[in-house]
Specification:
Radius of gyration: 17 Å
Mean pLDDT: 87
Number of helices: 7
CATH topology: Rossmann fold
Subcellular location: Cytoplasm
Function: Catalyzes the formation of sulfite from phosphoadenosine 5'-phosphosulfate (PAPS) using thioredoxin as an electron donor.
Pathway: Sulfur metabolism; hydrogen sulfide biosynthesis; sulfite from sulfate: step 3/3
CATH architecture: 3-Layer(aba) Sandwich
Structural class: alpha/beta
Family: Belongs to the PAPS reductase family. CysH subfamily.
EC number: 1.8.4.8
CATH superfamily: HUPs
Largest sheet: 6 strands, mixed
Helix content: 25-40%
Length: 245
């Protein structure tokens, strides 16, 4: 097992993952990643609507892998409750990372950034998502970031590859090619609990101020950030910020 810390991924790693994943199931992809890259890996989880899938896959096939939970301080109460349930049930190795500025301090200094257009939303993403994730990667000595992104979730993800280089971090998506029926079947087969807000019409999950239930005729993309965007800043192209990720 290769567990070299602070290794900078090479293009050969991207090609290796993309080629290997084509012939593998999702459980085999997770096992292979752990065998191939060891302690270079972390999984990120938002404890959103489909988070239980990757958490279960890791708990079954790579239980040593750290799980980074970015707690913005603006999550729904139901998300915090759901997270505690999954952490207990699946016994995953969760590492909680929070912004350096608390929610109260941010609002005192900058106001409600999510109400301040694109510039405010970008600053919000840097403070609450990008900086804590970058700090997590550095402190955990990881350079390969595993995520549960799927192509069918949004138009911004439709052309993703299984692995891609984002600055100094290799990002890997073991369930990228899964359809919605595959997601539903995995929940059913493994008796995984659903996020409580799914039953209330939410099709995607984020902070309480940027996520709303679907209305008739809407897509999941239109239920985030008032329909102006879907990505929070973590899963943008490599030129989107000045951090490791």
């Amino acid at each position: 097992m290769n567990s070299t810390a602070k290794h900078i991924p090479a293009q050969s790693d991207v090609e290796k993952v993309n080629e290997a994943f084509l012939q593998m199931s999702a459980p085999d992809r997770v096992k292979w990643l752990h065998e191939e890259f060891g302690s270079r890996l972390v999984l990120s989880s938002s404890f959103g609507l489909q988070a239980a899938i990757m958490l279960h896959l890791v708990s079954e096939h790579a239980p040593e892998m750290p799980v980074v939970w970015l707690d913005t301080g603006y999550l729904f109460p139901e998300t915090y409750q759901y997270a505690e349930q999954l952490i207990t049930d699946l016994d995953v190795n969760v590492k909680v990372y929070q912004p350096k500025l608390s929610a109260a301090r941010q609002e005192a200094l900058y106001g409600k950034l999510w109400e301040q257009g694109e510039e405010g939303n970008n600053q919000y993403g840097l403070i609450n998502k990008v900086e804590p994730m970058n700090r997590a990667l550095q402190e955990l000595g990881a350079d390969i970031w595993v995520s549960g992104l799927r192509r069918s979730q949004s138009s911004t993800r439709a052309d993703r590859q299984f692995a891609e280089q984002q600055k100094r971090t290799l990002k890997v998506y073991p369930i990228l090619d899964w359809s919605d029926p595959q997601v539903s079947a995995y929940f059913y087969d493994h008796k995984l609990p659903k996020h409580p807000l799914e039953a209330k019409g939410y099709a995607t999950m984020g902070d309480w101020h940027s996520t709303k239930p679907l209305e008739e005729g809407e897509s999941a993309e239109s239920s985030r950030f008032g329909g102006s965007k879907y990505e929070c800043g973590l899963h943008l192209s490599s030129g989107a910020n000045d951090f490791q990720i």
